[in-house]
Amino acid sequence: ITWYLRDTLLIGTYTLIPIALGPFVAGAIFPVLSRWIGARRALFGAVSLLALARVVNQVSASPQVDFWTAAIATLAFVGCLPLLFGLGRETLVGGVLVGLALDSAIKGLSLSLDLSYQPGLLPLLVVVTMAGATLYLAMSAGPVERRGVGWGSGVSLVAIAPFLFLQLLLFQNQGWTSQMTGMSSAGSAVRIALLNAATLVVVGRFYPKRWLVWPSIAVVAGAVFVAEGNSLTYNILSLFAIPAAGLVWAQIVPDPDRQRVDASGFYLTTGMTVFVISGLAYYLPLDLSLPFDSADVRVAFAVLLVLFTAGSALRSTPRSAPSGDGAWLLAAGAAFLPLFALVVVTLSQPVKGDPGDPVRYMTYNLHSAFNTSGSMDVEAIARVIEDSGATVVGLQEVDRGRLLSANTDLLFLLQNRLGFEHVAFFGTTDPTWGNAILSRFPLSEVETRYLPLVGTPLRRGYLGATVHVGDREILVISIHLQHINDPDVHDQDPEGDLYPVHHQQIATILDTWNGREPAILVGDFNARPTWAQIEELVNAGWVDSWGEAGSGDGFTSNAADPQYRIDYVFHTPDLTAVDVGVIPSLASDHFAVVADISG
């Protein structure tokens, strides 16, 4: 939705909201159909549609087909839940926990890149195998009764929304875990996979001990509250948060107690709809000026989960076993998958840079690795960087695990694919999105600073690091300035719209830089060469390498129809640009700029 409908087809943000909600609401059709065709046929129909849509999605190279198959698979998945619940409580408790474990393990094997974004025969075979296994399980499930819950006892099922939201945003997120704990993404994947297996053991063994629910609630809430705070505290709490969340989930789900699915169908569909609303609410403040920010949404859904859990725990209704026998064995077996990725990463050899003169620098806005057609293609981004021969690369719009990008840790993928040993990253909106520097030379003295918002919703940042090129020490800065302030003003006068914001952001950059030489300043400035904000940089002593050694217009945006130069490589006067060029590619919505700089 985000990358295809909004960024490619330019559909407005508010228009995306009902489109996003549609498949989740439509999932209610399968519980309704079960009245006339029976629960077993309705379940098999939903599972068949899910499997078929997912396979077509994997085969397709069309963003339009991907969009529709994803929507169809989503409504089929949502429709399955209340029908599966009719098989017994363990299908919803243990099944969801096993599903999270398998999903995280498979993604860990590919260093966070979802199967949907992996081309080739092997990922297709994996998807087809999973689709076949899912169909087989649906066929062999035995009698499926139209069982559910009462309207009073089943309201806690809505809590699937905050449970899944916090799991995917934080606890199952390799990039967030890596950024906050200092572990590699591969190491974080192994840690998450092992904790998922442990969760099923803990839930199976300790669930009846109701007193454990209260410390579990405290651990989950505490991890959410410090998710962007103290790294050590989050590291400790997140170790216990996944098992604690499993105990919370087991407490929330009631036993089916009625011969109908009306209430459970309504509550689970509502819960999944609230789940996508939680994602929208988390990311909308990054695009629109709203009276709350993303952190508020994260905390609000943690509070919501606490309330649902507390309400459920205070009831004295007994519950059956939370998961089937052997579920933990399946999760434990899957936990070995990320170990293969960890071994590969450990054995890989980094590519060293030539410390000769000149040094090749690059700036590249990655657009989260989504191309101009709205499809994620990490390999295309990697080839642009690799073919450039750049040894120091400043990146913007780098994802380390956003729901918008299927929790892909783009920084880690590129680092290992391209053999960059030295990396610096600064998450500006949260720990999973911001600026990065990749270097084939050692880095030190990494410095980060937020840029002023000046009323705009999306937080930007300054990332600086000292690059040690032989016996030379060069400060390299990667930045990203605001792209729009007032849409109505911007269409008529983009410079006037952005200057008040850029003026303060540039002042912060200049203050942090403080005249140090030699230095390189790269980034997406969202400003054209003749604008006043660029003049401020030049007057402060920065030299535009394109004006010194480039030829032609040097347009970098938009990649589909380039009309403006807004991406720059600046240097201090003690350095000299020898050659500068742009790299035309549709891998992002920006062209990369490459500069050979001597000195």
Explain this structure:
The chain is α+β, with helices and mostly antiparallel strands and 599 residues long. The chain is built from 22 helices and twelve strands. The protein has helices spanning 2-6, 13-26, 29-37, 39-59, 63-85, 89-109, 121-139, 160-171, 174-181, 185-206, 213-225, 231-252, 262-283, 294-314, 327-334, 337-347, 378-388, 410-418, 487-492, 494-513, 532-539, 545-549, and strands spanning 359-365, 392-399, 422-430, 433-439, 443-450, 461-469, 472-480, 519-524, 543-544, 567-571, 576-583, 592-598. The strands form two sheets. The protein has a six-stranded mixed beta sheet. It has a six-stranded mixed beta sheet with strand order 5-6-7-8-10-9. The two termini are 46 Å apart.
Strand coverage percent: 5-15%
| Unreliable sequence segments | none
Distance between the termini: 46 Å
Mean residue pLDDT? 94
Residue share in helix: 40-55%
How much is the radius of gyration in Å? 25 Å
How many beta-strand elements?
12
Give the helix tally.
22
Q: How would you sum up the global shape?
A: elongated
Q: How do the strands of the widest beta sheet line up side by side? A: 3-4-2-1-12-11
> Could you describe the largest sheet, including whether it forms a barrel?
6 strands, mixed
Structural class: alpha+beta
